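Form P-L/3: holo structure prediction, ligand S-adenosylmethionine.
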Amino acid sequence: MTETPTERMQMLQRSLRAASLLGAAFFSTSFFACSREQPSQAASPSTLSPAPVQVAEPPPPTVAAEALAPVNLYGTCEPGEGGSGKTYMGREIAEVMGHFGVGWLERPEREREERTDLLVAAMKLKPTDAVADIGAGSGYFTMRLAPIVAEGVVYATDIQKEMLDIVMERALEDGAHNVMPILGEIDDSGLEPNSVDVVLFVDAYHEFSHPWEMMTSIVRALKPGGRVYLVEYRLEDPTVPIKERHKMSEEQARREMEAVGLRFVENADVLPQQHIMVFERR
Ligand SMILES: C[S@@+](CC[C@H](N)C(=O)[O-])C[C@H]1O[C@@H](n2cnc3c(N)ncnc32)[C@H](O)[C@@H]1O
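OUTPUT (holo model):
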């Protein structure tokens, strides 16, 4: 028997609730006893502080990043909690959150905890903007941005097809005709050159296994003057209850964005737990 759209949505909501506990375990320092204070067997004090630098200097920002081959940009380290064991510019890249974490991304208390409403307002979008929600996950932000750019488009990109299936189901349900899914590669956003006004990353960039290649493709996709909103849990704040590898400091983020030629505009520090770091294509 074929389900109605309402029945499909109810099934989706049931599976989101079941998945929320798994998602909490992935990110939170408090969910498991095995937290930063009680590292796993593999962890050592050195793995719990920023990863040892074993990488070559990235290309200077004055040189067109895409003209340079990414040689020896990455290193390795003993994996810290939530880490991948791969380093970039002195930071250990985090593990990718699987689609089992969807329930956590969609938890009802998220808006109150993270003030996602303030984040959307801070983006100052125009109705005609083309926005890319990169690492869109289940589309939490895609679905909030779509009505704001009603005459524009939201590209929802992710490397997990399961995530994009959820986004498209929700877009269909809401009649959000301006949502376009893009299944990216780990080293390529899949966006067309010169096609977007605004890029949003929420809790995603720190997971990119090939940040230099991803950012190079994103800079290429930005129109001149286009903006990047990089939203990450504040590493500087030990009270933010998120695993260290899933946080970023402003200093580190600026270093990585400037390495691909983006200009730092501001840190709109209005959220309780996260930075909103704004960069611009020159
Ligand atoms: C923690 S989730 C955040 C989802 C969403 N931004 C949100 O805040 O609700 C991170 C997402 O980034 C995606 N991701 C990881 N590496 C990626 C890459 N190289 N390109 C695109 N998406 C990526 C993961 O598949 C995952 O869906």
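COMMENT: DSSP finds nine helices and eleven strands in the chain.
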